[in-house]
UniProtKB/TrEMBL annotation:
Subcellular location: Spore coat
Superkingdom, taxonomy of origin: Bacteria
Entry's family note: Belongs to the CotF family.
UniProt KW Acetylation keyword: no
Source organism per UniProt: Brevibacillus fulvus
Record keywords, A-Z: Capsid protein, Sporulation, Virion
Name recorded for this polypeptide: Spore coat protein CotF
Coiled coil: none
Alphabetical GO biological process terms: sporulation resulting in formation of a cellular spore
Primary location class: other
Keyword Transferase: no
């Protein structure tokens, strides 16, 4: 297990903290999209949410490959579930 020299924080801790933050970001973007009244702002937020979903997917794959995270489902299935939950939070169906 590797640690950062300066702080002694493990790579696993960093990876899992980033993964949790990425999951929260997706849900926060969904909430912001739901609240936004301006369509241009909604479009920007939707793109940022999709970027956050892809970032989460990358982090999840890294954490799984390193043995830091035991996913209950395949990473792509996890991303699809997160997108579905986000779309429900925004009040519309994703295709």
């Amino acid at each position: 297990m590797s640690t950062t020299a300066a702080s002694g924080v493990s790579e696993k801790t960093i990876a899992l903290d980033l993964l949790n933050s990425a999951k929260q970001a997706v849900m926060l973007y969904a909430r912001a999209i739901n609240e936004a009244q301006n369509q241009q702002l909604r479009n920007v937020l939707e793109k940022q949410m999709m970027d956050a979903v892809h970032y989460q997917q990358s982090l999840a794959q890294f954490a799984i490959q390193q043995g830091y995270y035991q996913a209950k489902m395949e990473p792509m299935q996890m991303v699809k579930q997160n997108l579905q939950e986000a779309s429900q939070a925004m009040g519309y169906q994703m295709v």
